[in-house]
Known about the structure:
CATH architecture: Alpha-Beta Complex
Radius of gyration: 16 Å
Shape: globular
Strand order of the largest sheet: 1-8-2-7-9-10-3-6-4-5
CATH class: Alpha Beta
CATH superfamily: ComB-like
CATH topology: putative 2-phosphosulfolactate phosphatase
Helix content: 25-40%
Strand content: 15-25%
Low-confidence stretches: none
Distance between the termini: 23 Å
Mean pLDDT: 96
Structural class: alpha/beta
Amino acid sequence: MDIRIREFISGAQEAEGLTVIIDVFRAFSVACYAFDNGIKRIIDVATPEEARALKQHLHADTLLVGEQNEKKPEGFDYCNSPTEMLTASIEGKTMIHTTTAGTNGILNARGASEILGAGIVNAGAVAKYISLVKPKTVTLVAMGYRAVESAEEDLLCARYIKDLLMGHENDITNSLNALRTGSGKRFFDPSNLSFSPPTDFFLCIDLNRFNFILKAVVTDAGHAEIVRVDMNG
């Protein structure tokens, strides 16, 4: 198995084979918590404008979730926050999701044979799925901070998945905890509390909390349907 690690939108655009788009803080952590809390359907789109337009064509039980410059866009129901997904009344609803890095990574992986979304919270399930599928090529794309700056957490997640695929389960507890004073320190900045609470940090680094993958299917309309696939065992 040829396992490659890439970064940013350019990495997604260059990705081949089974491609894993990684966004720990916070896109795919949000998606996992949303599915766990009963969301029925998740649709990824590129921009807040597309999200608002799509909502006009869908059922009334449609929520706008995401961020622009980390903050909740105007008219959105929820920010890109796992804390909000954990506590929100979202069961049975459709979520239209847009973020700077994660959702756009999925939409740009046009050369991939299959696309998954991943975070620390479901990294083990992703590795388990890939091991079952046994693709010839795997591209792990660490989307980074705002898709332009390397992010410790995304690269850590990519390396963890790669190691699992190579038969090594490393203890990354210390590395996860160290994020608190590294790339995750923004969650503890008092000026960010309204849109990026400390609880988001802890929810995003809860290693292997979920035993399911996020499979993305890009539609002709240019959106991506995100499907939850549970892994048994």
